[in-house]
Protein backbone atom coordinates (compact mmCIF):
# COMPACT_ATOMS: atom_id res chain seq x y z
CA UNK A 1 0.00 0.00 0.00
CA UNK A 2 1.44 3.37 -0.97
CA UNK A 3 0.75 6.65 0.76
CA UNK A 4 -2.05 8.66 -0.84
CA UNK A 5 -1.67 12.36 0.09
CA UNK A 6 -5.40 12.80 -0.50
CA UNK A 7 -6.51 10.14 2.00
CA UNK A 8 -9.12 11.23 4.53
CA UNK A 9 -6.63 11.60 7.40
CA UNK A 10 -4.22 13.69 5.32
CA UNK A 11 -7.18 15.91 4.42
CA UNK A 12 -8.15 16.20 8.10
CA UNK A 13 -4.56 17.16 8.94
CA UNK A 14 -4.67 19.89 6.27
CA UNK A 15 -7.97 21.21 7.66
CA UNK A 16 -9.96 20.29 4.55
CA UNK A 17 -12.26 17.99 6.53
CA UNK A 18 -13.36 18.88 10.06
CA UNK A 19 -12.89 16.61 13.04
CA UNK A 20 -13.94 16.58 16.69
CA UNK A 21 -10.45 17.10 18.08
CA UNK A 22 -9.44 15.50 21.37
CA UNK A 23 -5.73 16.39 21.37
CA UNK A 24 -3.06 17.84 19.11
CA UNK A 25 0.65 18.53 19.37
CA UNK A 26 3.49 18.89 16.88
CA UNK A 27 3.55 15.13 16.12
CA UNK A 28 0.01 13.75 16.52
CA UNK A 29 -3.66 14.54 16.16
CA UNK A 30 -6.37 12.68 18.06
CA UNK A 31 -10.08 12.95 17.35
CA UNK A 32 -13.38 11.13 17.83
CA UNK A 33 -14.28 8.57 15.16
CA UNK A 34 -17.30 9.71 13.13
CA UNK A 35 -18.75 6.18 13.24
CA UNK A 36 -17.89 5.00 16.77
CA UNK A 37 -17.84 1.26 17.43
CA UNK A 38 -17.74 1.67 21.23
CA UNK A 39 -18.82 4.36 23.71
CA UNK A 40 -15.26 5.70 23.51
CA UNK A 41 -13.69 5.50 20.05
CA UNK A 42 -10.78 7.85 19.47
CA UNK A 43 -8.37 7.84 16.53
CA UNK A 44 -4.75 8.90 17.03
CA UNK A 45 -2.72 9.66 13.91
CA UNK A 46 0.83 10.82 13.34
CA UNK A 47 1.15 14.08 11.45
CA UNK A 48 3.80 12.57 9.18
CA UNK A 49 2.93 10.73 5.97
CA UNK A 50 3.23 7.16 7.23
CA UNK A 51 1.21 4.36 5.65
CA UNK A 52 1.48 1.74 8.37
CA UNK A 53 3.12 0.79 11.65
CA UNK A 54 5.92 -0.84 9.64
CA UNK A 55 6.52 2.40 7.73
CA UNK A 56 6.22 4.50 10.89
CA UNK A 57 8.63 2.48 13.04
CA UNK A 58 11.17 2.32 10.20
CA UNK A 59 11.11 6.01 9.26
CA UNK A 60 9.72 8.13 12.11
CA UNK A 61 11.92 9.89 14.61
CA UNK A 62 12.14 8.66 18.19
CA UNK A 63 10.19 11.78 19.21
CA UNK A 64 7.35 10.95 16.80
CA UNK A 65 7.16 7.35 17.98
CA UNK A 66 7.16 8.36 21.64
CA UNK A 67 4.52 11.02 21.03
CA UNK A 68 2.14 8.58 19.33
CA UNK A 69 2.32 5.92 22.04
CA UNK A 70 2.34 8.35 24.96
CA UNK A 71 -0.70 10.10 23.51
CA UNK A 72 -2.59 6.82 23.15
CA UNK A 73 -1.91 5.89 26.78
CA UNK A 74 -2.66 9.34 28.15
CA UNK A 75 -5.92 9.70 26.22
CA UNK A 76 -7.14 6.27 27.35
CA UNK A 77 -6.44 7.27 30.96
CA UNK A 78 -8.07 10.69 30.53
CA UNK A 79 -11.16 9.02 29.05
CA UNK A 80 -11.49 6.96 32.24
CA UNK A 81 -10.71 3.65 30.55
CA UNK A 82 -7.66 2.53 32.57
CA UNK A 83 -9.53 0.85 35.42
CA UNK A 84 -11.98 -1.29 33.42
CA UNK A 85 -9.75 -1.83 30.39
CA UNK A 86 -9.63 -0.74 26.79
CA UNK A 87 -8.34 -1.81 23.40
CA UNK A 88 -5.74 -0.28 21.11
CA UNK A 89 -5.99 -1.40 17.48
CA UNK A 90 -4.06 -0.54 14.33
CA UNK A 91 -5.12 -2.36 11.16
CA UNK A 92 -2.14 -2.89 8.86
CA UNK A 93 -2.33 -3.85 5.18
CA UNK A 94 -4.93 -5.79 3.21
CA UNK A 95 -5.06 -8.84 5.50
CA UNK A 96 -5.32 -6.53 8.52
CA UNK A 97 -8.26 -4.71 6.86
CA UNK A 98 -6.54 -1.32 6.71
CA UNK A 99 -8.92 0.99 4.86
CA UNK A 100 -7.01 4.31 4.93
CA UNK A 101 -3.35 4.44 3.83
CA UNK A 102 -2.32 6.60 6.79
CA UNK A 103 -1.26 4.98 10.08
CA UNK A 104 -4.01 5.35 12.66
CA UNK A 105 -4.50 3.83 16.09
CA UNK A 106 -7.99 3.24 17.44
CA UNK A 107 -8.72 3.55 21.17
CA UNK A 108 -11.87 1.59 22.07
CA UNK A 109 -13.48 1.45 25.50
CA UNK A 110 -16.47 2.07 27.68
CA UNK A 111 -17.93 -1.44 27.45
CA UNK A 112 -16.85 -5.08 27.28
CA UNK A 113 -15.33 -5.48 23.85
CA UNK A 114 -15.35 -9.25 23.48
CA UNK A 115 -12.79 -11.37 21.69
CA UNK A 116 -10.36 -9.83 19.24
CA UNK A 117 -10.97 -12.54 16.67
CA UNK A 118 -13.60 -15.23 16.41
CA UNK A 119 -12.62 -18.36 18.30
CA UNK A 120 -11.24 -21.15 16.13
CA UNK A 121 -13.47 -24.07 15.41
CA UNK A 122 -12.11 -27.41 16.62
TrEMBL record:
Signal sequence span per UniProt? Answer: none
Q: Where is the active site?
A: 104
Residue span of motif Histidine triad motif: 102-106
Recorded GO terms, molecular function? catalytic activity
Q: Which InterPro entries match?
A: Histidine_triad_CS, Histidine_triad_HIT, HIT-like, HIT-like_sf
Q: Which domain of life is it from?
A: Bacteria
Q: What is this protein called?
A: Histidine triad nucleotide-binding protein
Q: Which organism is it from?
A: Magnetospirillum moscoviense
